[in-house]
Amino acid sequence: MDTEKRVIKKYPNRRLYDTATSSYITLEDVKKLVLENVELQVVDAKTQEDITRSVLLQIILEEEGNGSPMFSYEVLTQFIRFYGQAMQGMMGPFLEKNLEIFGQLQKKMQEQSRALYGDNPNLGSNLWGEYMKFQGPAMQNMMSNYMEQSTGMFLDMQNRMQEQTKQLFAGFSFPTPPAGGKDSDEKR
Q: What residues make up the domain containing 52?
């Protein structure tokens, strides 16, 4: 059963209005809603256009400018290079799945921390912070290996699809274009 999304209206003066609380909110408040896993939709108050993605991208842009960015120059340039490419449509679901797996890993680590240290959030997060300082390279290596395996599986799937397509169309005879192409037809 789908739950209704919380509607936030963005007015021409750039103010955000939360229809659930009947009050104006800030971009920071929208970020908090996202962190609380509240399903939301931001609409332009005048046109009713869904502008959720642009508001979320604005939050990411602000986060990237506040201290330690998550996306390196290389990652951002790779994102840009994927636009307009044949594989663009597959990039979003690929990233989504990998972020889902990463989130599951993070949740497991939090559960383990809670099991060891109880519900003391400071103790657990401080210990995980220290742990990550030392184990960060190992975790990155593990994630890198996972990405390499994912890439290998994706390329294997792509090759199998190409082979199946060749086999599917092998029984059909397609007309071959004239040797000279369109120009030779015009010369006649």
A: 1-67
